[in-house]
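Researcher: Please translate sequence to C-alpha cells.
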Amino acid sequence: MKYVDKRPYADPETAARKLVELAATIDPVQDGRIPIEKINAPFMYQHGSSGPEFGAGIKMAVERGWLELHESGTYVRLIKKETAN
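Model: Translation complete:
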C-alpha cells in the first residue's frame, strides 16, 4: 500500500505566507508591480506546490490584505501595512 505524503502548501494560509515571502524578495518593476510569474514559478517548481495551491494561496493573501492582485491577473503588489506608533 502506498501512502500519499502531506502537501506542505495544502493549507491556504501557509501557501499565502510563502507567496508573500517570495514577493518580498523580488524587486518590483513599475509602480510596485511584481509579475505573477516571478512568484508562480518558484512556488510551483522550487517549492513543489500545485496550481490549485497557488490559486488558494493568492486568494487568501488578497483576502488578508497582504497582496493586491491586478484584475488581469498578470501582476501583484505587496501591500505594506502601516504600524501604529
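Researcher: Any highlights?
Model: Residues 12-78 form a domain with the Arc Repressor Mutant, subunit A fold (CATH 1.10.10).
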